[in-house]
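Methods: holo model generation. Sequences were used as deposited, without trimming of termini or removal of tags, and paired with ligand SMILES retrieved from the corresponding compound records. Each pair was processed once, and we did not select among multiple samples. The sequence and zinc ion SMILES for this entry were:
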Amino acid sequence: MILQYLDFERPIVDLENRLDQLKRLDDGTDKGVREEIGKLEKKIGKIRKEVFSNLTRWQVTQLARHPNRPYMLDYVNLLFKNFLELHGDRAFRDDPPVVCGFAELDGQKVLLIGQQKGRNTNEKIYRNFGMANPEGYRKALRMMKMAEKFNLPVVTFIDTPGAFPGIGAEERGQSEAIARNLLEMAHLKTPIVVAVIGEGGSGGALALGVGDEILMMEYAIYSVISPEGCASILWRDTAKAEVAAEMMKITAQDLKRFGVVDRIVPEPLGGAHRDHKAAADALKAALVEALYPLLHMPTAHLLERRYRKFREMGALKKKAGGAG
Amino acid sequence: MAIRLFRKKDEGDKRIKIPEGMWIKCDACLEIIYKPEVERNLNVCPKCVYHFRIPAMERIRTVTDEGTFDEFARELESVDPLNFSDTKKYVDRIKEAKKKTGRNEAVITGKARINGIDVVLAVLDFEFQGGSMGSVVGEKVALAAEAALESRFPLIIFSASGGARMQEGTLSLMQMAKTSAALARLSDARILFISVLTDPTTGGVAASFAMLGDVIISEPGALVGFAGPRVIEQTIKQKLPEGFQRAEFLLEHGMVDMIVERSRLKATLTQILRYLSSAGDR
Ligand SMILES: [Zn+2]
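and the model returned the structure below.
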């Protein structure tokens, strides 16, 4: 994988490169080099802390879309065992942006559904940049119904810019496919744990996002429309994406405050892309913690709890006096 | 999720403009038509059957039995959870919409009768912020579904919306899940839900309750789809085919049960209600 850096990561990366050089020089004899290494390490720690404790929402957006960020299939390798992929919606075709299969999470068998973006150009095209067609959502639904039938809990990973806006997608009912998943997930008689691992792009993300516990990686985003899309509609200027990201409040911390997200999964220092293994370990721990209590919940209670959770989302007031 | 509400500037407002004068120009056939005649004709062009957009209250008048509509949840109002402002403050946009429509929000909910049959109605109002779904619209649609569940009356929702309301951020996205969850309960209880799509029904409203009807009806010519035509054009970099995302296109692709002209809507709803509303009693 070719490592790439965001602008605001630059100062950290530059210092890290210098540190690497110094470490190569260090043969254990030169005290000056040792001291220099120590100083540099401190400095890197300080700058990293400064940068990452003051991230703007637009910077978080860039981290969520970072080209080196772990994708669904990276997590499949790092935190699940015995993954067995299943394909197709049994109606039209297999949709590669949505990946489904059996997997073991810490010894617990689950049905895993996730969105996959693709790392290099060929993969990206094959995965349609993580943008599912209706058949992708229908494949996911077929798997969820199977999970319900055979008593497997469902784990979903969300990472998409949005559902694909195309002619074929509209012809085959993109809106119906998304809507159907929302309805069916709301009363699916098996536990569902959702993890937003990167980009939670609007309805295309939510179509895998109705569940009992909603997890979100620390530098993931989840929004009703992309900052660019919002900027182009409300400001008629995509250059306002940064402001739009700020306005829409799309980070894990924002959404925990609004009750949209239950748990924030901490990412390794500098973001998940700096250490896939550490990110996977943290996500695994959070998934296990979220899932286990659900396994023993009576179904009626589980479904009532899931209903109330989404039923209560929103902000409104009742006008005094009642008349409008 | 939310899309541009207006496709072209001149196409933006399909209500009958030019309040002065008795003659108006049809947006579709461009014929000059006599306003009282159009109004008598349920706001359908007598020359080309073009269906003008109509306000929610007028919709209710045309499909329910006179004097039977009993509104609920009228008192619910939007707040500004994100402290949002773009070129205008969200609170100001809401104020303007209230002033323009005389309503608190973009949906009207209530109970009514249609040819003597009890129903619960939710009618979206495109005049209020493009019918966009924020927390209040989501709440009222969910309340309507719950009222139908409790009374065991069939639910009918008339959609007219550009999608989710961006100014409420991810909370507006979650209204899609909220409304769909409420409809799941209605479906489990075998209570009929008829969805009527009117121009336009797109974005987060299309991708939630609007496409979940046991029976889905569309008015002729209505724009119905997930992504906005402009977004699709920009993504695939080609021109869209004539009639793309119109009601007739959806019918052809199997996405709606029927297209019904406004003049036949009440009668058709009655017929469906008579076929299906007893299902829950067994
Ligand atoms: Zn006409």
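Chain A has a mean pLDDT of 95.
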